[in-house]
Structure formats: structure tokens, C-alpha cells
Design brief:
About 8% of the residues have low confidence. This protein is 28% helix and 36% strand. It is of the alpha+beta class and 222 residues long. Strands 2, 3, 4, 5 and 6 form a 5-stranded antiparallel β-sheet that branches. The radius of gyration is 27 Å and the shape is elongated. The chain contains 3 helices and 10 strands, in the order ββαβββαβαββββ.
């Protein structure tokens, strides 16, 4: 009697609290005077980046990385309700990015910065350190293989077969059976900035991040 071929997908997920928060904020002003909006935007940028520079330490944090975009200045003439063009309105804008390793310090700093005139918080991207991500990915891969073996064993015993022997193991879509390729394992980043209604402080509540791994496996059962 020929061996039975069993092909399965093994999967596993691991969750871990965020370890990094990448903040994105914008400083912008507008008004009738180009010099005024440029000065206000520059002053606010200088003030915020000076604070980040003081907090910056690549090893100990709380800020492990920061950068500021090039300042953009432009003007436009808005339309009036009567269909005529209004006077020129000048705009100045610059973006600032910072990665915090101390999430409590991130919440405190954003809570203050977000209340400043001309500052808008675009959001925070939560992530893991690279070392943590690799460790979790390796563990999830091992568990996904165990899941595939367990699933194939259940199928085999359901058919009255006693044992399974692995023939092939791959990432999704690489067994040559036409199955759709899968995505590489990666954290599912959460972007969230929510105001604490109990006061003026901005509350940042990162969700746990997920490492999800799938494998395809083929076995013989006899």
C-alpha cells in the first residue's frame, strides 16, 4: 500500500509589549508675513530639537534616535466666497522624528510638546528592538513547525495511520504546489495617540505587538 501524502500549514503567534516608540510631529505656521511664519516655525523647531538633543543617548535613551526634516516655505492665494483671490497666505512647515526607548518618557514629552502652539502630533509607531524581534521570530518559527507536525499527526491518526515522516518544509508558497506566498514574519505595528480625558496630559497606550509565522510542510504517513 502506498504511503499517504499529507500537506499542512503550521502557524504560531507570539505577543510582546512594545519596546520602542517612533514619534512623528510637525511644526507649522501660516500668516500674511513670510518672515513671521518662517521665524515662528524655526524658533519652535530649534526649541524642540534642543530638547531632543539633550535627551538623546543611543544606548541608554530615553531618545535613541532623532531627526528633523528640511524646512518648507510656500505661499498661496485662497479663494474668497465671492470668487476673487485673496491676499497671499504664507506657510512654513517642518517635521521632526524621534525614537524613544523609554515609553513613559515619550508620553511625558509628547504630552507637553503637543500643547505648544504650532505643533501637531502625526502619531507614534510602536516596535520592538531588533534583537527582541529576531528572538521572537526564531521561537515562533520553531513553534510553527511543531504545529505543522501536530496537525499532520492528527490527520494521519484520523486515517488510521500510525506515523508521519517529513518530506519537505518551507515558507508559505515555496513547496511548488501553487499555494499563495506568505508575508515574512514581522510585528504588527500599532499607531495610536489618544488624549487622556481626565486631564491635559496626552496618554500613549501602545498595544502588544504580534510576531506571526507560517510554514508549509509535507509528510508521508503509513
Amino acid at each position: 500500500m502506498a504511503d499517504t501524502i499529507i500537506t499542512v500549514q503550521g502557524e504560531y503567534e507570539l505577543k510582546h509589549p512594545a519596546e520602542r516608540g517612533a514619534l512623528r510631529l510637525r511644526v507649522s505656521y501660516e500668516g500674511p508675513s513670510r518672515d513671521d511664519v518662517l521665524a515662528l516655525t524655526t524658533q519652535r523647531q530649534v526649541s524642540l530639537t534642543a530638547e531632543l538633543r539633550d535627551l538623546h543617548d543611543p544606548q541608554r535613551g530615553p531618545v535613541v534616535q532623532w531627526a528633523s526634516d528640511q524646512l518648507r516655505v510656500w505661499g498661496d492665494r485662497p479663494w474668497n466666497p465671492d470668487g476673487s483671490r485673496g491676499d497671499v497666505v504664507h506657510h512654513a512647515e517642518v517635521g521632526i522624528d524621534a525614537v524613544f526607548s523609554d515609553l513613559a518618557a515619550l508620553s511625558d514629552w509628547v504630552g507637553v510638546a503637543s500643547l505648544l502652539d504650532g505643533v501637531a502630533v502625526d502619531g507614534v509607531t510602536w516596535s520592538l528592538t531588533e534583537a527582541r524581534r529576531q528572538t521572537l521570530t526564531q521561537e515562533a518559527r520553531r513553534r510553527a513547525v511543531e504545529n505543522a507536525v501536530a496537525k499532520a499527526t492528527v490527520y494521519a491518526t484520523s486515517l488510521g495511520l500510525s506515523s508521519v515522516t517529513p518530506l519537505a518544509l518551507s515558507d508559505p508558497g515555496m513547496l511548488g504546489d501553487g499555494s499563495a506566498p506568505g508575508q515574512p514574519p514581522q510585528p504588527l505595528f500599532a499607531r495610536a495617540v489618544s488624549a487622556d480625558t481626565g486631564g491635559a496630559t496626552l496618554s500613549l497606550k501602545p498595544e502588544q505587538l504580534t510576531i506571526a509565522v507560517q510554514v508549509h510542510a509535507r509528510f508521508t504517513a503509513s
